[in-house]
Amino acid sequence: MSAMRVLASTLLLSLLLVTASARASTPPPDEMLTGLTAQMFELLRTEREAVREQPARLFTLVDEVLSPRVDFERMSRWVLGRYWRTATETQREQFVAAFHNLLLRFYVSALLKNPEELDALLAEGEGIITFQPLGEPMTSETVTVRAQANLPDGRKVAVHFNLHARDGEWKVFDLNVEGISLITTYRNTFGSEIRQLGLDRVIERLTERNHELMQFAESLNSEAIAASASHD
Question: With a threshold of 0.85, does the pTM exceed it?
Answer without folding.
Answer: no
